[in-house]
Amino acid sequence: MQLNNNGWLEQDSEITLKPSPNFNERPDPQDISLLVIHNISLPPGQFGTPYVSDLFLNQLDLDADPWFACLEGLKVSAHFLIDRTGHITQFVSCNARAWHAGVSSFEGRDQCNDFSIGIELEGTDSEPYTEAQYAVLNRLTQCLSEHYGLRAVSGHHHIAPERKTDPGASFDWVRFSSAVNRPDINWPLTNQSSKDQPNNN
User: Fold this and answer.
1) Count: domains in the chain
2) Distance between the two ends of the chain, CA-based, in angstroms?
3) Within the chain, which residues score under 50 in pLDDT?
4) Residues linked to residue 9 through DSSP beta bridges, in sequence order
5) How far is the C-alpha of 146 from the C-alpha of 46, rounded, in Å?
6) CATH number for the domain including 181?
7) pLDDT of residue 126
């Protein structure tokens, strides 16, 4: 797995590039220090659909499911999506600001989109993530850390605790941090539930 100087992964059979229009420039392109882990499934709890990609590309058919009505007009993106098979889709260059974190704060800094990279895992708070997802997430995190010198990793619920719960209690932080094995990175402390995790506000 290799990231080029433009912030895009080199495409191969395990990686698809689908540039999203939902991005803008970072205030400081040299300030990329935080990795944020999310989950997503559309419709909620259904896997293997095209709808997450459609959402990030502003192509979601709102008539495809009644639940999609609440997404009308929403413009969001993440840098990466890792599906249940471990396939990566990249939507935004890591050098640019994707719209994944929303209102957020980490270690006293607001607007986490400015200095973070967002990875969406296809999943829910309660359903275990797959072996393939962990394996690819580990490799991708190593790649991003080597390229950008990441200093911290968090869940969406760490940086937006009043609004978000993902990646949820089903995500194994101990397994993830142990596999990546980067003691220079600030990791969440334990596998506690989202409401018990330390608040970085």
Assistant:
1) 1
2) 34
3) 190-201
4) 3
5) 34
6) 3.40.80.10
7) 95
